[in-house]
What does this fold into?
Amino acid sequence: SAQKILVVGGAGYVGSAACAWLLDQGHDVWVLDDLSTGHRELVLTENFVKARAGDRKIVLPLLKSHAFDGVMHFAAKSLVEESVQKPELYWENNVEQTQALIEMMIEAGVKRLVFSSTCAIFGDPKSAKIDENLPKNPINPYGKTKLEVEKLLETAVTRGLQSIALRYFNAAGAEPKLRAGEWHVKETHLIPRTLKASALGSRVEIFGHDYSTPDGTCVRDYIHVSDLAAAHGAAMNKLQNLEKDKGFFGAYNLGSENGYSVRQVVDAVEKVIGKKISRADMPRRAGDPPVLVSNSEKAKRELAFKPKHDLNSIVQTAWDWEQKLKKGIRRAVFLDRDETINED
Ligand code: UDP
It folds into this structure.
């Protein structure tokens, strides 16, 4: 049946894809976002509140007056290298704002939360496939902030909070109807940067070529953003079925279970766009572990998680989305983005 869901960070990349999915399921979707990295154009509902996740003046009355069935929380800073440079910013934004949100939820009696976590909490696990039980030793501040929030969620079980942390591997691709996709003013992610390099006729930079991996570049597990969105729906349904006020915490690793090296991803982009892209070997980027590939058996079992999109479909939708951005959700913003990228 229809749920009323507050999507915190719903103007961002994964959050807006989740909104598209929730709206398709007939749910009543509300978005809270401070638009620090998200975009008003990606808010897919009329029900929009501009504020930070932990803003008591705005969020507490919102939670108290709406009887939300649950909250999905995507709002975070999520760039590994930036987190190495600005750890305090990451702590304040990701941990302290979320802690305030959790407190307000409990106070308002809204006790179901699906939280965006990350495989970065595992650090450099040196395991072929990463399952939920491996030790959590984040090697960058970003991963540390997400692990800290998971601990807060676990602690809040005794106060009746029912939460699920979804640990994404590398979110990628665009929502197939192109309502949501990657749109970062400073683009750091491999697939959009490769598409961009191709469009500008510049070289794609490959950060690190001497890792202990088959071709020397980092191996990642790319998972389509709409497959992640569906997993959020399944997680929220699982929470709705729990006995009310009985605290719960669960965590799931979400990936395709396939690893691709940076070079293999650039190859896949070349195949989709039918054009060679020249490459430049660059030094390693701070905070990057060599290999991160998911074991998602638990999510398959308990959330009926079944990724529909392979790497080719991820790159194809990302490419389609780039065309849409270029034509202009708002053309001026796309030009801003080009200018920012040229500064790199
Ligand atoms: N990467 C790269 N060139 C780029 C962007 C990224 O070589 O222009 C590498 C990066 O060092 C990492 C992988 O691609 O090994 C995935 O990086 P991305 O930023 O897309 O995601 P992350 O793994 O940091 O979440």
Q: What stands out?
A: The longest helix spans residues 87-108.
